[in-house]
Structures are given as C-alpha cells and as structure tokens.
Amino acid sequence: MRRPETGDGGAEVRADPDLLDAAADVLAAIGDDLGADAAVRGSLPVPGFRAGYAADVFETALAAALRTHAARARSGAGALRSTAHAWRVADAEAAAAFGTAAVTPGGTAAVTPGGDGG
Amino acid sequence: MPALPDLVRAAPGLWLQRAAVWAALGETLDARADRLGRDGAAALPANWSGADAERARTAHTELRRRLRADAEAAARAAEVLGRHAGEVLEVQRQLVAAARAVRYPFYADLMTGTVLRVPGGPWAISLQTVAAAGMLALHAVVAARFARAVEAAVGVAARSDAATAAALRSLIPGGGETAGAGDPPVGPAAVRTWWADLSPDERDQLVRSRPQLVGGTDGIPVADRDRANRIRLDAERVQLRGLAARRRSTGDVDGASRAEAALAGLDAVAGRRDAGGAFLLDVAAGTGSGRVVLAVGDPERAAHVVTHVPGTAAGWASVPLDLRRVEATRDAARDAAAADDDVAAVLWTGYDAPTSLPDAGYGGSAAAGADALREFQEGLRAGHHGPVHLTVVGHSYGSTVTGRAAGPGVAADDVVFVGSPGAGVRHASELGLPADRVWATSAPGDPISRVPGPGLFGTSRGLHESGLAYGGNPASPAFGGRVFGSDPAVDDAHAGARAPASAGADAATKESLDSTHGGYWDPGTRSLRTLGKIVAGVTG
C-alpha cells in the first residue's frame, strides 16, 4: 500500500484523488484514440520507386510510434488511478488512526510535515 | 530508380491519398497533444504535488512532446509525398504529350518507349521504293525525338524519387530505429533466422518493395522468394518485350530474335510456375544469357531434392529444354523412390553460363557459379523441414561448376557429372563426399570427352595434370567415383542448342556432339533411369 510521501526538503505533498481519476479517464481515452490512429497503414510501394518503399517504411514506423504512445497513455492512466486509490487508502488509514475521518470522501487530502493532517 | 514501365504504371493519385491521410493524422495528433495539456481534460491536476506528481508530469510532458513531433513529421511527410505525386503526375503528362505528338503512320508504345509503325500503313509499300526509304528516315527522327522525351521524363522521375525517399527516411519517427528490417546477415542459416524474426508486415513489405533482395537471397523461405521473384519475372518480361520491339523497329533482326527467345524462356518459367507446384527462386538478367532458378516440387518438404546445373549457353532462352530435363529427372526419381517420398527438382541456372567451352575458362563462370551453387545448396539444407537427401547433377560445363562447388562441407549427399568436360578437381576424394556418392557418365559417342585440354589445369587447390579441358575426367575409373553407362539417343533435336563448340572440332565432331551430348535425359535411356535412382537414393 502506498502512503502519501513527503517531498524533498519537506515540501507539501497534496493530491485530489477525484481529479486524478478524471485525468486518468481522459488519458485512457486518448490512449484508445491513439491506438485507433495507429491503423494508418495503407500505402502500397510501387515497384521501381524507392519513394514508395520509403513511404511504406515511414508509415510503418509512424504506426509503431503511435502504438507506443497509446501504450504509454494507457499506462499513465493506470498509474493515475493507482495514485488516486493509494491516496484514498492512505487517507482512510490515517483517519482510522485518528479515530475519525480526516477528509470527507472525495475531498482534498493534504499533509504538511510537522503540521496537522487534514 | 524507376524505369519507364514503373513510371507508366505508377499511380500518383494513390500517393496523394496517402499524403492526405498523413496530413489529417498530423492535425489529429496535434489535437490529442492539446487535449493532454488542457485543464479539465487529461491535464494533471494543478494542485497535485509530490514526487509522484513530478514524475507523472515528466511522463505527461514527454508524451505531449512526442505527439507534437510525430504530428509535425506526419505533416511534413504528407507535404513531401504530395509534392512527389505532383511531380510524377507532371512527368506522366509530359510522356503522354510526347506520345501523342507521334503521328500516323507511327505510334508510340509507352511501356517500351519505342516508336512503332502502324500495321498496314505506307509500310505495305515495297521497302525498295524511295517513299519507303523516306519513311525509314522519318521513323528514325520521330523515334529519336520520343526517346529523348522518355529519357528526360524518367530522369525527372528518378530525381524526384531519390529526393523523396531521402526526405521520408529523415522523417521516420524515432530516427529510423523502426525503419524496417534492414539488410540480411551473411549465410543461409543466419538469413533463415533473420527472416523468421521479422514481423509479417515487415516480411510483406520487403517482398513488395525489395523483390531483388528477397527473391535472390538463399535462406529465405521459398514461398516468399517465389512471390518476390514473380514481381521480378513480370518486370523482366516487360523489358524483353520492349527490347524485342526496339530491335525489330531498328532492323536488328538477330537481336530481336535473341530477345524473343529469351522472352519465350521466361514465358515458359511463368507458365510452369502458374501451373502450380513450382517455386521461382531467382530470376535476373546477370551478365550472360540470363539467370533463373526454378524448383519443380517443394524443395522445403520433399524427401529428395535434386539440383540440375546446365552448362554452356544456358540461360533464359534454354529454359524450355532445361526444364524438360529437370522434369524428366524428377519423374525418373519419383518412379524409383519409395511411395511416400516426394521429389523436388531444381533448374539452377544461378550463374552466368559461358556461351561456349572455349569462352569459359577457369576463373570466371565456374568460380563465381561454384560459390553461388554452394550457397544455394546450403540454403536448401537450412530451409528444409527435417532431413533431406540432396543431389547435384551437373551437365557439361555445369559439371565443372558442380565440381568446383563441391568440397568439404558441401550441402550435397550425391554429386553427378554428366557429359563432363572436366570436374574441376583431380580426384573424387577432393569433393568432400564419400567416393561411392560421386557419380559420372559420359556416353560413348559424346565428343565432350575428347575436347582437348591444356597440359595443366589450375584450381583453387593448385595445378594438376589435365584429364580433360577443365580438369580430371570424372567418367574415368582413375577419378575414383562410380561410373554408370549411357546410351543417349542420336536424334536429340535440342542437343545443338546446348552443344559446346570445341575450338578444334571438325564438322563431324560438331555434328556428333550435337546429336549425343544432350541425349542423357531422353525417355527410356539408361542414363535417365540411373539418374532417377541416384536422386531417389536407391542405388545401394
């Protein structure tokens, strides 16, 4: 389980799990769109023309790059959701430790090193 | 570089379509990058902070940067390809204009770049007339003008092609790391592995865009080589048609006949391939009479595979004759083989065969041909699905090539010398095979065994006393192999086309050579039956 971390030098660590989830949803959708974009392949090289071959190579490489981008976007979306989940779990655990909820569900959690939670 | 038929067949409209797709994709990618950074969309929450937020922002920024870069690459590539399409379209327009400028009684053939005479025109008049002579002169002028237009058009297209290819390569996302399969490694076994590691898309792309590479590389599966070589075969036939027409139009009757004979040979290749059960493994003009390698049967699965190496004057024009011998060998071997054993027979003219024995010499054709044959055999072994029995049959000068290809490690289980002018080595023990797997036959009436040789012959293994023109006589008991009898027919109508012309042969010898040297594959002969048994591995 992941807990809220303190940044270097004691900087504030803050997150809004709902906004992270929202960003994850859009990022995942973009990943799906990029996956669809990768279906760009379509040209046929013309015998004798090096440009036809080069066009085919370019298109193949572009499609491969788009598939990679799509995978990164989906992976990023998954990481955002994991982060949101971790924040919620940590917040709930912290609240349990205090015997009361530190934040309302869906609210913003903030931890300041050396200061008060919530 | 595109040739005229490539230019005529090109469809720049399709390239324009691709360019439009790329341009639209560039805009789409830009929009996606915008969306990644827009608040309320995929932008990361502004109030998210901490080490995880920093890392997420770095990854997010990098993804946006790459999307922007690829969007720009797609847009620029679209521009490049669109410009190329426009230039090729313009060149095609100029070609058509030049062709339309050719007036009756002539017409322009766009596929060949030649100017032809309209059948039944003023040419019907006797060529002895002054009018006809004038028409000939006019034809020369018109043909030259059209040829200049063709040359200019092809030149412009070639320059545009080269510039476009270079520009597109420079725009490949990732700096070309995913630019394709590259060149194959050296050696059939390594090539086999390299090819297997490619994705289906990459393989298909190479077949279509680099048919010379795929079609001519030993180790690539025969089905893929066949597809690539079909492209090459069609291109060669188009060129030969054009060549024959040009020679006819310029009055070069002999040259036209040679081109037509070569075309007939390639037509025979196409016909056999299209009939099924055959694979075209190479076809190239080379520097001689044309190279062709055609497998009848499946050389990757047949239990027995024989490689037939023809000799002097072999090439495209001799395909009909050579193919008959290949089919005859295969039939004889199938008759002799076990019921479950299939046989594949390969016509291997994968070298530039000399036009005659005196022209052959040691250093050129045989040496180069031997290297190519050795690699081809390695490819057969490496590409076969399971164990295989491999035989190489060399005829005439092809036996010299075969002897020089053999040696320690050669991918052959049996080697057969038929009507040999010399095996290229002194003794069977130099061939890298057990002596009882080295076979030879020379018909009693075959003058090839009387072709005079030098006192010494040179091979990669040094100088040796000569038995024949090109080394030891494999049909001599002293050679150390197994000699089998032949009774070739004396009325082989095709022998003349294959006959090597001895420098000192008199007319009688030449006639005898023509009638016997090519008879080893005649139906019912002892030589053919024995060949079948050797190929089928049932000789004991």
From TrEMBL, chain A:
Protein name stated in the entry: Uncharacterized protein
UniProtKB/TrEMBL annotation, chain B:
Residues of the DUF1023 domain: 287-452
Compositionally biased residues, Low complexity: 496-507
GO molecular function, one term: hydrolase activity
Keywords noted in UniProt: Hydrolase
Membrane-spanning parts: none
Pfam families tied to this protein: Abhydrolase_8
Keyword Cell membrane part of the UniProt annotation: no
InterPro entries: AB_hydrolase_fold, DUF1023
Region (Disordered): 491-521
Stated name of the protein: Alpha/beta hydrolase
